[in-house]
Amino acid sequence: HVCEVCDRAFSSVTGLGLHRKRAHPVQFNQGIVVDRVKRRWSPEEMELLADWEARLTREGCRGDLIRRLVGLSGGRTMDSIKGVRKTGEYKRLVAARMARGDSPIRVQSEDHAVGSASSAEARWEEELRTILRQDMEVVSRLGPAPWAAGYLVEAGEAVLASRDPTGPLVQWWTEVFMRELGSTPIPSEGERRGQDELGTSRQRRRRLFGEIQRLWKTDRRAAVSRILGGGTDLGPQSLGDMEEYWAALFEVESSPWQGETEQVVERWAMGDIFSPLTADEITGSMPAAGTCAGPDGIEPGEWVRVPLAAKRILFHCFMMWGEVPSQLLEAETSLIPKTAGPASPGEYRPITVASVILRHYHKILARRLGQVYSHSPNQRGFISGMDGVGENVVRFNAILQKARKSRRSIVVLSLDVAKAFDTVSHEAILSVLRAKGAPLHLRKYIQSCLRRSSLRLKWRGQRSRLIRVARGVRQGDPLSPFLFNMVMDHVLSGLPERVGFWTGVSGVRFNALAYADDLLLFASSEIGMRSLISAVESGLAQCGLKVNPAKSWSLCLNPSGRQKLIKVDSEVRFQVAGSGVRALGIADGFKYLGVPFGPLGVQKAEPEIEAALYRVHRAPIKPQQRLEIVREFLLPATYHELVLGQVRREDLHRWDVRVRGCVRHWLRLQHDVPNSYIHAPFKYGGLAVPELSRMVPMWRRVRRERIMQRWEDMEAEEIGGEVVEVTGLGSIEEVRRGQWEDLYGRVDGRDLRESAKVKASYSWKGEGARSLSGREYVQFVRLHAGCLPSLMRAARGRGGQRGALWCRAGCPRAETVGHVVQVCPLTMGGRILRHHAVVGLLVKAFEIRRYGVYQEVSIALRETRVRPDLVVTKGNKAWILDVQVVSPGDELNVINARKKGKYHTREIHNAVRELTGKIEVDTVAITISWKGIWSSQSVRDLREFKLGKRILEWIVERVLRGSHMNWSRWNK
């Protein structure tokens, strides 16, 4: 048996078939025969034909009925249609439709169409008035500064009297934030100096280092994107080009509503939307720290400090008046490239940022609306509490797998809606809101926001003119996903229910999967898909939207009953918006929601980890910045693809090896530093670099279980894709526990076992690393990992006399790093300097907090003298403090207790009372290991002084610096 493509011979037909399928998929797919002498009528085709016949009969079509059905059926012959019309099943379908009749749903535009809610409206408004008066009393007690309470009280009184509160509200935030809304200047980009290519390579690298460091301080994500090549380079377009394109897009008037609207079924409860806001709602919806300020320049950090009562007065004024000031509806739009080197303004994505005040209010409103309205079951985009991306990816893969395994025909069409968020009709949004039962007060508020919105483009350090937004919703507004999803719900509701892919479960058909504007259509036949296309195009046109055929594609799988195979049939073509869409072949791949797919399901994930590591390695940045990029950006960017795509354990292990190799190179860690030190979390002494081979399988399992809890309409085995299982580990926490237990079981990691007790012991490896130089960070990590060179460490795994490993300074002890740093007489001076440096930091901290400080007081006892490092006083109390930097042979708290017991005697306390004149005396031991790990009891005792966490971190850094200095001087 010889392969006709590569002439390779096989001993069996089965072996040859497997070879052709894997090595030559195109030729194998071409060999599958799906043509039939007599095409059978699928249930979907019969349902559609019965619908058309019933409709034509009601319209009075008699003589040319069969001819009209031939035209609608898409390729069926007249004899074929005559034959199916004679069957009993078909006659029953037509009879059922004729008996049911045609009762189209009409518009109910009047608000009193379903009952009256005047009493309910009165209740929620009265509740708002009550809470508003209470908050006004609270705010009035705050005084005029710094919260300008008088303006808030004036605004509250205005809205209670049914007057416009805009004036006092604008005066309030102008006074509080000391700026006019929309007046914050944007820094100029300045002129390029044209010196990027001048100088030697070292000079250019230094110049680039400075640029990245400045960018890192202001926008860390932008700096990382520049290093990783994330496609952030802007194209050659000028502000004029951008303004011309986007103004023409936004300022076009919304197309009028052209379709029938679903009948109002029930009114949304006003109390669920406009009831008084709770403290939990306000605090739980705060914009995240670090997010951008709007045109008014109010930062999230500033807004957080505004009292809760003031925020609630503001939001309740918005609720009761039904409008927000027009200044809040002005926004800034940044244009983000969709691809590297965009050639036209249309290749950018507009992200609009409004005031943090409006974003906060709309986030609360969006959460409430999500609780009173349920989106279409086919829509999973931006819905709270739902893993929409995961569910859609898994369902799509399961559908393809089901079609392949059961050898059922399936037609898939991916539709790209052109500029969906930017061009959706405002009239469509308002009409759909009315049809879904939204109350008039809410509709008026949304109408006010839509019709008064405006924006300025932000481009290359400049702002455009004010552009009126006559259509579209703003990407970046928390309310936009809800409004857009409602419009898409209308489009999805128009799809014919009898068309779709049957999963095998009774009554379950899939005809669409939607993630916001990302739409997949499913049918069991070509004619079924054409009916779906017609319905979608009609629904989108009613909403002012249209399909972009250039970015759409189709996929057709047809079974071969004789060969028991399924063929990717690229001969089946469809037209959308008057143009043909690309038909996928067996060798074509595509991405759906960021996950690689092929015609038969999810494909192997191949993130560019190695190429990204090379770019990080070549970048002129600090070692700790390289580590931070890998830990927080590079690897997390691959999680989505690795968790939802196909992945092999061998690939995960290979990427782990590459990452560890880079980390060892950047930090100068020897090959025998345990892998668990690199992967264990900061808290447990490691560097917190994710270990893909352990974590990805766990994440896959956890995410699968979460999706399966919502899965009711498909078999569990169709969840999609092979999942790498890890035996013996039950949870992510157990995986992490295995990492740090392995680390503590090593000689080099034994000293780190108490690291988790105090955050200051490990914070220098994360956020605290930004204040360290690259050299210091590498030194600290090597010291912390216990991998600094010594005779004992170099002799691991080798034979030899123990005497040959004694300290080279002449000590009769083994030469270890601990001995060199803590015991050897040659480093005694360094240990004293380290100790005094820690004491000096504490002295400064106590003096700043107005403690009385006595240093190295000599206290005479009956037989000896003691000299505690510090005696501090405040009020009627004195404390004896003594600092020690120790080797953690015993538990640190035990060592701390011994030191405390040395000074915690009646004789010493009496001497301190006599010295300070204080009645109450206490003892505090300050214990930290030479690797910078705090005794937890020491930290608890120090909290009484309220020194702050930063002083604890400074002491750790000073101890590490002193310990490494001891080792360095010993080696000179």
Automatic annotation (TrEMBL):
SUPFAM superfamilies: DNA/RNA polymerases. Keywords: Metal-binding, Nucleotidyltransferase, RNA-directed DNA polymerase, Transferase, Zinc, Zinc-finger. Residues 1-24 form the C2H2-type domain. Coiled coil: none annotated. The keyword Metal-binding applies. Pfam families: RVT_1. It comes from the Eukaryota. Residues 317-597 form the Reverse transcriptase domain. GO terms for molecular function: RNA-directed DNA polymerase activity; zinc ion binding. The keyword tRNA processing does not apply. This is Putative reverse transcriptase-like protein.
